[in-house]
């Protein structure tokens, strides 16, 4: 089949597939005299889909989002991986309704590159890693944590901060509702 059709089946842009062809990452692909590129039908899912997930927890840190994605991209290239897509998000690691996170998982990647474990999820990283491994997806961490005590302390403060934010957010919403009722 033609490279353009193959790229649509893989869920990647034609330019990405063409770059993979040039790099020799599509097994069995060949170019004919007319310039058309063909991929054998036998192995349509042979190319790994590598994605990068970058996340910051609040808008004040949004400036570091691009540099985080760039560090992950450099890490992936150093390992010889061709990055298909970069997902960037401003959301809490404890939030279960992260739009970009779910879009990334829906794209069925074979490899996810993150800067730190807590960029992917605040808790349950090992569970997520094992679950994704069963579906054929590997998680690569660019800078693994070396101090477990430091990591545990950071997790504890994150939980306390998250619950306080929820509690005070509810109180603030209740106070606003009372103000609106008083105005009416």
Q: Can you put this structure into words, describing what you see?
A:
The protein has 184 residues and is of the alpha/beta class. It has three domains: 36 residues, no CATH class; 92 residues, Rossmann fold (3-Layer(aba) Sandwich); 36 residues. It has seven helices and six strands. The strands form two sheets. Strands 4-3-5-6 form a four-stranded parallel sheet, sandwiched between helices. α1 packs across α2. The radius of gyration is 21 Å and the shape is elongated. 18% of the residues are buried. The mean pLDDT is 84.
Describe how the helices and strands are arranged.
Blueprint lengths: L2 H8 L3 H9 L7 E2 L5 E2 L11 E7 L6 H16 L4 E8 L8 H8 L4 E4 L2 H4 L4 H10 L3 E4 L6 H36 L1
Parallel strand pairs: 3-4, 3-5, 5-6
Antiparallel strand pairs: 1-2
Helix pairs in contact: 1-2
How far is the first residue's CA from the last residue's CA?
67 Å
CATH-defined superfamily of the largest domain: Resolvase, N-terminal catalytic domain
Lateral strand order in the biggest sheet: 4-3-5-6
Taken as a percent bin, the fraction of beta residues is 5-15%
Largest sheet: 4 strands, parallel
Which percent bin holds the helix content?
40-55%
Quaternary assembly: single chain
Q: Which consecutive residue ranges, at least 5 long each, have pLDDT under 50?
A: none
Shape label = elongated
Helix count? Answer: 7
CATH fold label of the largest domain: Rossmann fold
Mean pLDDT figure: 84
Alpha carbon gyration radius = 21 Å
Secondary-structure arrangement, i.e. CATH architecture of the largest domain: 3-Layer(aba) Sandwich
DSSP strand tally: 6
Number of domains: 3
Classification by helices and strands: alpha/beta
Order of helices and strands: HHEEEHEHEHHEH
For this structure, what is the CATH class of the largest domain? Alpha Beta
């Amino acid at each position: 089949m033609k490279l353009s059709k193959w790229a649509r089946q893989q869920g990647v842009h034609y330019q990405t597939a063409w770059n993979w062809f040039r790099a020799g990452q599509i097994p069995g692909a060949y170019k004919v005299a007319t310039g058309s590129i063909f991929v054998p039908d036998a192995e349509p899912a042979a190319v790994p889909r590598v994605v990068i997930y970058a996340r910051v927890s609040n808008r004040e840190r949004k400036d570091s989002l691009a540099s985080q994605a760039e560090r992950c991209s450099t890490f992936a290239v150093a390992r010889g991986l061709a990055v298909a897509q970069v997902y960037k998000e401003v959301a809490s690691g404890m939030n279960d309704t992260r739009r970009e996170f779910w879009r990334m998982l829906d794209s069925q990647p074979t490899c996810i590159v993150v800067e730190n474990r807590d960029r992917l999820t605040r808790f349950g990283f090992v569970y997520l890693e094992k679950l994704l491994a069963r579906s054929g997806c590997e998680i690569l961490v660019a800078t693994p944590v070396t101090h477990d005590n430091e990591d545990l302390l950071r997790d504890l403060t994150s939980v306390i901060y998250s619950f306080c934010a929820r509690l005070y957010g509810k109180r603030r919403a209740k106070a606003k509702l009372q103000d609106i009722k008083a105005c009416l």
